[in-house]
Design goal:
With about 120 residues, this protein is an all-beta fold. The protein is built from no helices and eleven strands.
């Protein structure tokens, strides 16, 4: 059974940086995307960034483009989300997820395998 484990969340001040990690435990059969989502209190979960397995293409939500970078270390079976210039509105629970997609990793409703999440809090 495949599991996704996130880590790296924490509290930072606005303008700061954090890097989240998502380790894939097990083997995901077939082509797939790995993505990052977030959910702020009282809001719906939203897709933030996605990457095709093998690092071919990356996708970003408009609100984070230019500030967040998604990457993959294939040898470590780990996906990262590097977050810079963080804003209070970036606060939320961040989740790693996987979808059976070949590309178009921003088809956020296709993600079916989820991690438990890691909290990010940005103070002003």
């Amino acid at each position: 059974q495949v599991q996704l484990e996130e880590s790296g969340g924490g509290s930072v001040q606005a303008g700061g940086s954090l890097t989240l990690s998502c380790t894939v435990i097990g083997y995901i059969d077939g082509t797939h995307c790995l993505g990052w989502f977030r959910q702020a209190p009282g809001k719906e979960r939203e897709g933030v960034a996605g990457i095709t397995d093998g690092r071919v293409q990356t996708y970003y939500a408009g609100s984070v483009k230019g500030r967040f970078t998604v990457s993959q270390d294939i040898a470590k079976n780990t996906v990262y989300l590097q977050m810079k210039n963080l804003k209070p509105e970036d606060t939320g629970m961040y989740y790693c997820a996987a979808a059976r997609l070949t590309w178009k990793c921003d088809m956020w409703d296709q993600y079916q395998l989820w991690g438990q999440g890691t909290q990010v809090t940005v103070s002003s």
